[in-house]
C-alpha cells in the first residue's frame, strides 16, 4: 500500500526474480507504471533500508475492483502481501453491498475546508474479528511505504486506510456529470452529500452554524467506525418468560472487541468477579453501554423505560413488544452492529414458528422419458402449515391463526405465529399446489429447502412422498457405501481393491435409477479400472454393450492400452486420425466388425472429434457414455461441452481427479452433462452458488450445494482412513503420451540419419558412440523439440509429453499435492524450470549438481516449508544422493534412465527418511517410440532386464542393426495430434 | 435567524434578548450581520465569548460577552444527578442537553441559561454606548447558531468543557465498573520501520474468511441501516433524514459494486488461452505503449514475468502485426504506438 498526496492505492512490485501473479497482470497493466518509489526493503543483514522500486500502481478503488472478483482459491495461492489486500477488497465489497458505510470529514490545511470521505463501518460482530485477523496476517512488505524517515503505518492503520480509500472510491461516480444528486435535507447534509457523490470531495464551512459539523459528525459516526481500541459491543438478548407469572424480558450485554467474551450487565452490576474482570479489559464499558442504550431506545422505545437506573441491565416487555423486537427491532439493531440474541426456535426458520412447508411428489405426473429417469417429467407438490417437524391439522391452524397475539402458548410452549405468514399460508393452501419439473423437484428435495413464493427470502422446508422419496432413499444409501451382492466381474484381469469395488457398486446403483455419476477419486486410486470393471460387469449381464469413452487426445493411446490390459474381452475402436469413420453408418459398421466375438465394444475418441463428429455420434444410442478427465468440459459454453451434452446414452459417467466440488463452473458443467437440469440454469447457478461460494466463501450456500450434488459425486482421497489400508505404499503408474507432428518429424529425421551412419559399422567404440548419441537425440526429441534443437521456444504445445505432464501436474498441484520432477538432463530441467515457473506464477526451483552446496540446501529447506514452492525439479543424478524431501507425495520421472534400479534408488532415497505419506510415481512414456519399446522390455522381462541391464544404457549399444531398428522406429499411434 | 427552526436550547439562549422590547431594531440588524457571516474569530471559554464583527464599512468591532461560571459545587451535584439516571447520562454522552438537566441546575440553585439580558455583560469596541449594541447582538446570535448544533458549548461557556464533563460523569458513577481505561485515546497509527523485519514477506497465516453479500431489503426507508441506527446526527438532524440525503449516492455506488461482484473474470473463462498469449494482452500492451510513450523489452519482460527474449519476440510480433513500431537500435530499442512513429 502506498499513498501519494491524498490518493491511496496499491503498488504491485516484486523483487527481480519473482513473477506477477496470473490473473492480475491484465488489471495492473491497465494501471500506471511508477518508477523509483521509495520503500523499506530488507538488506539481507537484518536491517531495513529505503530503496527505490518500480511497479504498477492502481488506486484503491481500481485495485479493489481487480482483486475482489478473484476466487478464494486463487487468493489462497497468492503471496500473502496480495492475499491480504484481496480479502480486504472483498470485505469492502461486502460492506458496500450491505450499505455499511458512513460519511466522514477529514481535515485539510485550511480549517474552513474539509474533505469528505466515505468510510466503511465494521459494525457486524464478526467484522472486528475478521479485520483483526487480516491485520495480523499482513506481511511487512504490504506496508513498507515510509510515512516518514523511519516510520511506517501499523498493520491496523494500513488496513483501515486501504478499506476506507477503496470504499470511498467505489461509491463515488467517476465524473461530475454522472454524479447522483443527494436527496433533500438540511443544508450541511446536502453539501456533504455533494462532496461524496462525484470526483469533487471539498466541503467548505459556511458560516458559524457549520462549524460544529465536522466535530459532531466525527462523534456521531464514532461507534460505527471504531475498530480495535478495546471498545466493547453492546448486545441485547430476548428471553422467554420463565414461569406463568413471569414476563418477556430483554437483557443487556457487553461483548469484547473480538466478539468472543460476553458479559451480562446484570452480572456486572451485581459485582460478579468474572464479569467485572472481563469488563476491566474493555475500554469505557459504561459510557459505551449508556450511549448505545440512548440510541437504541429510538429504534425500540421500550428500552427507554429501563433508563431510570445508573446502569440499566434489563427491560421487561409484554408479548406484543417482544414480537415487535423479534421481528423488527432485532433486525435493525443487528444491522447497526449490535449483538442480538433471540430464541432460535422463534426465528423465521425456527422450530417453534408457524411456517409454510412444501410437500413434494404426491404423485409423478408424467412418466420418465428417455434415459433421464427421474429427471424428466413433472412432480406434483402442495403447501401445508407446519410447526417444527409436525404438519398442523386444519383445526390447529385455525386456532393459532385466530390468536390475538403473535406469540402464543401452544401445547405448553411459546410459539410464534406471524400474521403475515398466516395470510400467506392461507393463500398458498387455497391455491392447491401445482407441478414442478422433476429436476427442480429433486433439487429442492435434496436441498430440503425452497423459497416461499411472494415472501422474499423466506425459506420453507421441503418434505417428499412417492417417487421422489424413493429416489432420495436410493441416492442416500449409495452415499453411505452399502455393499451390494454384485461380484467382481469375471472378465476383469486383476483384482479390485475393496474401495474400487465400492466405487463399482456405487456407479451401478446411481446409474441404475437413471442418474449420472461422477467418479472423482484422487489421482492414482485407479478410476480407469473402476470404470472398466463397470463396463465388464454390464457386458456380463448382457453381451454386446456399446460404450463410448471421450478423453483428451493425449490419453487416447493410454486408454487403448488399459482396456487391453484389464478387460481384454471387450473390443476397442479408437475413433481418431485420418482413417476414422466418416459417417454414422461407417462407424456402426466398424463397431460391428470389431465386436465379433467380443463381450462388447468401447469406442474411444477425443473431445475434439466428439465435437466434430457429434452428429453421427448422437445418432447412436450407447449403453454408457463416459467422459475421462471431465474437467475438459469445465467451460459450459465451449463447443465440446455442448457437443457431449447432445450425445445419447443410457448411463452417463464422468471421471475426474480434480476436486470438482471446489470449482463451481466446472461442477455445474459436469453435473449438467450427468443430470441435466438438476442444478438449474447456469445463470441462476452462478448467482446463487458460484459467486457466493467461490468468491465470498458463503458457508450456507456451499452446504446447500453439497447436499444437492453429494449423491452424484464419489470422491475418495488417498489419505482417507478407509482407503489408505487398501493401498500399497507406492502406487506406480505409467503415463503414455503422444508425440506432436513436429516431434514425430524430428524423430524420424534424426532416426534416418543416425541409422544410415550406424548401419554397417562394426561393433566397436565408434558404433557404440553413435548409437548412444542417437538414443540421446531421440529421447531429447520425446522430451521437447527445444531440448533437442536448443531453440529457446519452450511452448508446451510443441511437446506431447510436456502437454500431458502439465495436465497431470495441474491435477496434482490443485489437489494440494507436492510433486518432485526428475529428469536426467540438465537442459530439460532448465526448460521445465522456466515453463513451470511461468505456469504456476511462483518460482519453481531446479535442484542439480551444478549448484553450490548452500544453494542446494536452501532449495531443500524451501521445498520442505509448508509455504514453499509446490514443485521441485531434481536432476536424477543429484537426486540420488540422499535428499530428505518428505513433503513430496508425487514423483514424476519425466524421462527414463532405462535402468529401473537407478530410478527406484532415486525415488526411494528421496523418501527414505520420515516419509509417512503415500507416494504416487508417474513414469512418462512417449507412446510408439523407443521409450515405449524399452518400457515393454523392462516390464515384460523384468528378470531378464535385471540381468541384461547393467549400469546405465550401455546394453542398448550392444544391439544389432535389426533389433536396434525395431526398438527405435516410430509406432503407429505415436502421433495423436488433432487435425487442424 | 429564524428561531423556530432551532432546538429548544437555542431558543432558551436567545429568549433574554428577544423578550427585551427595546432591542427590536438592534436585534434585526444584528441578526442580519450574523446571517451574512460578519461574525468571525469567535472563541468560547468558561464565562467568556470573544469575536470580531465587521460591518460593510468602518473598523471591525471586537466583542466580549461575559457571564459568571456556575459554581464548582453546583456542577458536582448536577453531574452526580445526571450520572444516577442512565437516560440523562446517555443524552449527555450523545452530546445533548435535556430539560431535565436544566431542572437539575435550578434545583441546585443555579441557572444554566441567562434569565434576562442583564445576566450577561457585553463589551464592544464600537461607539454605541448602550449596554447592548448591534455587534453584541450579532455575537449572541452567532453563539446561538453554534449551540444549536452543539449544545454542550453552553456548558463550556458556563464552566465545564466536554472532556471535563465526561470525566466527571465517570467519576460520579457508584458502580464497580472501571471506566478509567476509557476516554478517546489517540490511536497510534505508525510504528518504526524496523518492526517490519520479522514479518517482511510473511506474517501470520492468512485467515479463511467468509463473506455474505445479501443484506435483504435495502430499498426506500431501509437504505443505509448503520446510519439509521446511529441516532440523531449533527445539528440534531434525524438519522433517517441523513440517510435519505445520502441514499441516492449509495444506491448508485452499490449497484456498480454489485455488477463488480458478478463480473466475469479470467477464471470464469477456463478455456481462454493463457493471458500472455491472449489477444487482449496485445491490446493491453499497445495501450501501455500509448500511456508510457514507448515500451522496452525489459519492461515488458518484467511486467509479464517472461524472459527478455520472449518479450522481444512478442513485441516483434506486434510490430509485424502492424500494431507497434520499432525505433532505436540495440540497447536503445523501443517500441512505440504506430501513430507516434509517423
| Helical content class of chain A | 40-55%
Oligomeric state, counting identical vs distinct chains: heterodimer
- From the alpha-carbon coordinates, what is the Rg of chain B to the nearest angstrom? 33 Å
Most extensive contact: A-B, 162 and 128 residues
| Topology, number of strands of chain B | 7
Class per helix and strand makeup of chain B: alpha+beta
Indicate the proportion of strand residues of chain B.
5-15%
N- to C-terminal distance of chain B: 67 Å
List segments of chain B where confidence is low: pLDDT < 50 over at least 5 consecutive residues. 181-186, 269-279
What's the overall average pLDDT of chain B, rounded? 81
Uncertain residue segments of chain A: 365-372, 947-951
Q: How many helices of chain B?
A: 14
Major pleated sheet of chain A: 7 strands, parallel
Query: What is the global morphology of chain B?
Result: elongated
Cα-based radius of gyration of chain A, to the nearest Å: 34 Å
Counted by DSSP, the helix tally of chain A is 37
Structural key phrases:
heterodimer, A: alpha/beta, seven-stranded parallel beta sheet, 34 strands, globular, B: alpha+beta, Arc Repressor Mutant, subunit A, four-stranded antiparallel beta sheet, two-stranded antiparallel sheet, 14 helices, 7 strands, elongated
Summed up, what is this model?
The complex is a heterodimer of chains A (980) and B (342). Chain A has 980 residues and is of the alpha/beta class.
How does the SSE layout of this entry go?
The complex is a heterodimer of chains A (about 1000) and B (about 350).
Chain A (H helix, E strand, L loop, with lengths): L1 E3 L2 E6 L12 H5 L2 E11 L5 E12 H8 L4 H6 L2 H18 L3 E7 L5 E8 L4 H13 L13 E3 L1 H17 L15 H11 L4 E3 L3 H18 L7 E7 L8 E8 L6 E3 H5 L3 H8 L4 H15 L14 E4 L1 H17 L3 E3 L12 E11 L13 E10 L2 E2 L2 H8 L5 E4 L2 E4 L2 H13 L2 E4 H10 L1 E3 L7 E6 L1 H14 L18 H15 L4 E3 L7 H15 L3 E7 L4 H11 L3 E6 L8 H12 L4 E7 H6 L1 H5 L2 E7 L11 H8 L1 E8 L8 H11 L7 H14 L3 H11 L3 E2 L15 E8 L3 H18 L6 H19 L1 H5 L10 H15 L4 E5 L2 H15 L5 E2 L5 H12 L7 E4 H4 L10 E4 L6 H11 L8 E8 L3 H11 L1 H7 L12 H8 L12
Parallel strand pairs in A: 9-13, 14-21, 22-27, 22-28, 23-25, 23-26, 24-25, 26-27, 29-34, 30-32, 30-33, 31-32, 33-34
Antiparallel strand pairs in A: 1-2, 2-4, 3-4, 5-6, 6-8, 9-10, 10-11, 10-12, 14-15, 15-16, 15-19, 17-18, 20-21
Helix pairs in contact in A: 2-4, 2-6, 4-5, 4-6, 5-6, 15-26, 16-17, 17-18, 18-19, 24-25, 25-26, 27-28, 35-36
Chain B lengths: L7 H11 L5 H12 L3 E7 L2 E6 L7 E6 L5 H13 L1 H8 L5 H9 L13 E4 L9 H16 L2 H6 L4 H11 L17 E3 L32 H4 L10 H24 L16 H14 L4 H8 L3 H13 L3 E4 L6 E4 H4 L1
Helix pairs in contact in B: 1-6, 2-6, 3-8, 12-13
